[in-house]
Design goal:
mainly alpha, two-stranded antiparallel ribbon, about 65% helix, UCP030140, dUTPase/dCTP_pyrophosphatase
């Protein structure tokens, strides 16, 4: 996967948004947790109470006004890529765009991989919040981010996505995000 290219593209999008609030990191951590949760929701494998635990990988969207052809979309891949946008954004916010992670499937199950990602985001948020009071621990943040990025890529692998699929979906979603900015989304 060409993570350098994805980081550059994400950085261009960040510059376009140009949000300068002091709470940007805090909001980025929350956005990442939300997107991880939305990805888990489309995966559905944790829903032990439901008979429908199959991942949402093909959903038909009819054409607008029923004119022309509809299309099939992969909601799981779309949500995964939304999370990847957030992972990259957090890394850029923290100044870690130089990291080139490996794909790590840290856990034997997808459920545990999701839970580990939530854990990592929580730890990173806590370390970031305490950065002025605990400089020694703040130096661990880069290692946590490297784990987060690697584990997120590992999740994509566990969900059955190829790096080519992920890159293509990322590029498509990036175009949508730019279009949304043009229309004051």
């Amino acid at each position: 996967m060409n993570t350098k290219m994805l980081i550059e593209i994400q950085n261009t999008f960040r510059e376009r948004i140009n949000y300068q609030g002091e709470d940007r990191a805090e909001k980025s951590f929350l956005a990442l947790n939300v997107e991880i949760g939305e990805c888990a929701n489309e995966w559905r494998g944790f829903k032990f109470w439901s008979k429908d635990q199959e991942p949402r990988t093909s959903v038909y969207h009819p054409p607008p006004f029923n004119i022309g052809d509809g299309q099939f979309k992969n909601p799981l891949l779309e949500e995964y890529v939304d999370g990847l946008h957030c992972v990259l954004d957090v890394g850029i916010e923290l100044g870690y765009q130089h990291l080139l992670p490996n794909i790590k499937s840290m856990h034997p199950s997808i459920t545990k991989q999701f839970n580990h990602l939530f854990y990592l985001v929580g730890e990173m948020q806590e370390i970031y919040d305490d950065r002025e009071d605990d400089e020694e621990r703040y130096h661990e943040l880069e290692s946590y981010y490297d784990d987060l990025f690697s584990c997120y890529l590992g999740l994509g692998d566990m969900l059955g996505f190829t790096t080519k699929q992920i890159e293509q979906a990322y590029l498509e979603k990036n175009l949508v995000n730019h279009q949304r900015q043009e229309s004051n989304y």
